[in-house]
Design brief:
single chain, mainly alpha, 92 residues, 4 helices
């Protein structure tokens, strides 16, 4: 493929992506944020986004092998550990 053909293929891909973006605008699938909306925004998290039950940060010392096994379970291991602890809590 020559350089001219390569550029034409890249240009065609760019134009296709632009056309897709415009077609989404026409069908209403994309929300366009205006400058006024941006100016009205406050800093930080949106109101109401904080969970009703707040979590408390603590220090917990675990054996290295225990921690390694939990981390090996992948993303979200802290949440899974908390669920197991909650299920094992007295009165649960």
């Amino acid at each position: 493929m020559s350089e001219a053909e390569k550029l034409n293929a890249e240009d065609a891909a760019l134009f296709a992506s632009i056309e897709r973006a415009f077609s989404q605008l026409e069908t209403g699938n994309v929300h366009v944020t205006t400058g006024e909306e941006i100016a009205r925004r406050s800093r930080g998290r949106p109101k109401g986004s904080v969970a009703a039950v707040r979590k408390e940060a603590i220090t917990l010392r675990l054996a290295p092998d225990v921690l390694e096994r939990w981390r090996a379970t992948g993303k979200g291991w802290q949440t899974r550990m908390a669920q197991v602890l909650c299920a094992q809590a007295p009165g649960a």
